[in-house]
Amino acid sequence: MNGLAIYIHIPFCRRRCAYCDFASTAGLEALIPAYVDALAREIAAQDRATVPTIYLGGGTPSLLTPAQVQAILDACRAAFDVDPAAEITMEANPGTVDAAYLPALRAAGVNRLSLGVQSFADGELALLGRIHTAAQAVAAYDNARAAGFANVSLDLVYGLPGQTLADWSRSLDRAVALCPDHLSLYALEVHGDTPLGRRIAAGDLPAPDDDLAADMYELAEDRLAVAGFMHYELSNWATGNDAACRHNLTYWRNEPYRGLGAAAHSWIDGERRWNVVDPGDYIARLREGRPPVAGREAIDRAGEMAETTFMGLRLLQEGISLARFRARFGQNLLAVYREQVRELEALGLVAVDAERVRLTRPGRLLGNEVFARFVAG
Ligand code: SF4
After folding, report:
1. Which of 176, 230, 244, 365 lies at 20 to 30 Å from 198 by C-alpha?
2. What is the DSSP pairing of strand 5-10 with strand 257-260?
3. Closest Cα to atom 2, ligand 1: which residue?
């Protein structure tokens, strides 16, 4: 993909979920109008670029009014050459959208909705501290379709404390029955400094079982293949190439993106850069005309090659294209990583053909071990 992908971070949530360690805050919704103004200033200060995708993530972007979303997208259209056919995604929490909200969001220009469903079992949603029920998630999905969203993705999480394979199977079936265009399935990561992590540490809840989580992943692979989904990235399935998330493909292909807003990261011109995390600090800096950048790091060529390789391996069909690697770096991937690829091939974790290197099915379950070889290399 050519051009610059734009990520916009909205760090506000109504309430913190029990498992969350993302850059988000609860109880600061009063800051949203000032935050939207600050975002518009940061956007206006960017160099002009062609923009094929915009992604509003969080936090909970659906705490913004449609008019605020419109203001952000208008600022993007003024500062950048936004492709008229751009993919414009917004994450939405099913507990924050109603039948009136979604048509207004669609009219504001959002054309892809990513719904944070997480589970179709109310007990699991309560355990996770989510602010919505399964019925609200189904209503949000139906309202999105009624509002004209032709591209809807659902997020689910598996490997919850006490969750059985049968529980997971039921949630998956409910998701498939809705006929979404895209599914993102994540294994629960337990962080010690969250309410869920503390309950597990105290012995109040069982720790997640990695073997069971692997069984859940394989169940999803099989079930979604039968349902006609293409497993295109380790954690992502789409009904076809057109339904793959174009914005996230930028990350997996290690192509340039600009992150705007508190805590947002960018990767452009050989440099990684990140903004201040605190929304109040972010707003104050933009008001005072100071850049919100908190840090930057140059990535050398070897680092860029390694990142391009291990991020690209996440793409299960596309893998790392040998031709694309050569065009980008002027070198043969199979020569640069001769030892790593030979060893991983011998272990049955990657497969090499004339065009590309890809993870095998066993390799998908050991992805982090595979990626670590390239980081070390
Ligand atoms: S809605 Fe998302 S970002 Fe907000 S607290 Fe829950 S998991 Fe974290």
Report:
1. 365
2. parallel
3. 59
Q: Work out the number of other CB atoms within 10 angstroms of the CB of residue 9.
A: 26
Give CA–CA dist 11/179, Å, rounded: 30
Atom number of ligand 1 nearest to Cα 129 = 6
Cβ of residue 14 lying under 6 Å from some atom of ligand 1:
no
Determine the Cα–Cα distance for residues 332 and 345; give it in Å rounded to an integer: 17
Q: Which of 22, 119, 127 most suits a substitution to test ligand 1, by most atoms within 8 Å of the C-beta?
A: 22
Identity of the residue numbered 252: W
23 and 59 Cβ atoms separated by less than 8 Å: yes
pLDDT, tens only, 266-314: 999 999 999 999 999 999 999 999 999 999 999 999 999 999 999 999 9
Residue nearest to atom 8 of ligand 1 (CA): 20
DSSP string, 29-74: GGGHHHHHHHHHHHHHTSPP-EEEEEEEEES-GGGS-HHHHHHHHH
Beta strand 5-10 with 50-58 is: parallel
Whose tokens are 């109603």? That residue is 98
In CATH, which superfamily holds the domain spanning 5-252? Answer: Aldolase class I (3.20.20.70)
User: What tens digit of pLDDT does each residue of 7-59 get?
Assistant: 999 999 999 999 999 888 999 999 999 999 999 999 999 999 999 999 999 99
| Domain edges within the chain | 5-252, 321-376
Q: Is 23 in the pocket of ligand 1 (CB under 6 A)?
A: no
The residue whose CA has the least distance to atom 3 of ligand 1 is 59
